[in-house]
């Protein structure tokens, strides 16, 4: 018998649940799409496109809606004889305007004419960029996804102004900047703010009803008929809505639940499979998160787990520092100064392993943070295995470990 064989009872197109799948229809974003369409209207009129700044948390459909609308726009532009080119650049690995310009030039050039990442005068690079863009002609829309990664923002000013400054003659260029960093807008220079944020669109988090519609649409493509009952969709949607209103999270959960059903040889996905899937996802999120921390991060986390087990959380950074220094002493590691230790606490809360809440001292004034654990300590201790060996266990942790056995 073959070791691998296609299993066909549950999924008919599992890839439809993957992040890179582009849905043909967008659901639950009517109002946002309407605003987006009117921001793009100048393109169809043959005018200079408006620059658009689109922001919202992770997984709220910014990329999916942008891809969908630009696809529609291209079709309609062809019908109305508008010469339209769209370029998409993910800025995740680009931190300067120089790098962005090089990337754009290389996207537009044949591979044999590609530039090296460094070593050219800036003016020359800009000149090449204008030549490439002007060579295309017509209307060009450049999408900068994760635009907040660009630290010096001059390119976000220069591109929209290129035509007015006489750098472009044949092309009209507009940019769409996408970001999930709400504070990014404030960090922009006022020049960039007024050009990039000409039209601002905000995508709110999804509620459970919207997530249900998105999941149902995708489940109908990904699974065979009647494999995913209504309550499974409702459960995945409720989970996503409670956490962050993030469609990606709910879709991942549904896919994992489908995998569990396949593994169990079931003929339907059940609510129990969703529960199991949640545990699996949570486990891998934590294991990956902890594995990505440095040794110092592990020691800070272990200090916080100890305090949690002793019932001492939520607690302030100062108390964590004291415990962390004891932990370092036992591990024979030089402790970090409080400020650096707090950076690690910040990272833990960013990863969702810990939570950080701001407190107010009341009349006497002054604000401070309190930290607590936001994760199952069993999982953390498992992931912190080596650190536990190095530092040893306290009574409180021993009790938990005994209890688990
Ligand atoms: N309204 C929607 N209709 C159908 N599918 C959607 C919708 N919104 C999001 N999705 C799906 O959810 C997933 C995440 O959406 P998307 O990548 O657009 O989020 P995003 O806001 O760009 O997030 P990030 O900031 O993390 O890139 C994708 O698989 C996308 O197809």
From TrEMBL:
<feature type="domain" description="Cdc6 C-terminal">
    <location>
        <begin position="301"/>
        <end position="384"/>
    </location>
</feature>
<dbReference type="InterPro" id="IPR041664">
    <property type="entry name" value="AAA_16"/>
</dbReference>
<dbReference type="InterPro" id="IPR036390">
    <property type="entry name" value="WH_DNA-bd_sf"/>
</dbReference>
<feature type="binding site">
    <location>
        <position position="218"/>
    </location>
    <ligand>
        <name>ATP</name>
    </ligand>
</feature>
<dbReference type="InterPro" id="IPR014277">
    <property type="entry name" value="Orc1/Cdc6_arc"/>
</dbReference>
<keyword id="KW-0235">DNA replication</keyword>
<keyword id="KW-0132">Cell division</keyword>
<keyword id="KW-0547">Nucleotide-binding</keyword>
<comment type="function">
    <text>Involved in regulation of DNA replication.</text>
</comment>
<dbReference type="InterPro" id="IPR015163">
    <property type="entry name" value="Cdc6_C"/>
</dbReference>
<dbReference type="InterPro" id="IPR003593">
    <property type="entry name" value="AAA+_ATPase"/>
</dbReference>
<dbReference type="Pfam" id="PF09079">
    <property type="entry name" value="WHD_Cdc6"/>
</dbReference>
<dbReference type="Pfam" id="PF13191">
    <property type="entry name" value="AAA_16"/>
</dbReference>
<feature type="binding site">
    <location>
        <begin position="60"/>
        <end position="64"/>
    </location>
    <ligand>
        <name>ATP</name>
    </ligand>
</feature>
<keyword id="KW-0067">ATP-binding</keyword>
<dbReference type="GO" id="GO:0005524">
    <property type="term" value="F:ATP binding"/>
</dbReference>
<dbReference type="InterPro" id="IPR027417">
    <property type="entry name" value="P-loop_NTPase"/>
</dbReference>
<dbReference type="GO" id="GO:0051301">
    <property type="term" value="P:cell division"/>
</dbReference>
<dbReference type="Pfam" id="PF22703">
    <property type="entry name" value="Cdc6_lid"/>
</dbReference>
<dbReference type="InterPro" id="IPR055237">
    <property type="entry name" value="Cdc6_lid"/>
</dbReference>
<keyword id="KW-0614">Plasmid</keyword>
<dbReference type="InterPro" id="IPR036388">
    <property type="entry name" value="WH-like_DNA-bd_sf"/>
</dbReference>
<dbReference type="InterPro" id="IPR050311">
    <property type="entry name" value="ORC1/CDC6"/>
</dbReference>
<dbReference type="GO" id="GO:0006260">
    <property type="term" value="P:DNA replication"/>
</dbReference>
<protein>
    <recommendedName>
        <fullName>ORC1-type DNA replication protein</fullName>
    </recommendedName>
</protein>
<feature type="binding site">
    <location>
        <position position="206"/>
    </location>
    <ligand>
        <name>ATP</name>
    </ligand>
</feature>
<comment type="similarity">
    <text>Belongs to the CDC6/cdc18 family.</text>
</comment>
<keyword id="KW-0131">Cell cycle</keyword>
<feature type="domain" description="AAA+ ATPase">
    <location>
        <begin position="48"/>
        <end position="225"/>
    </location>
</feature>
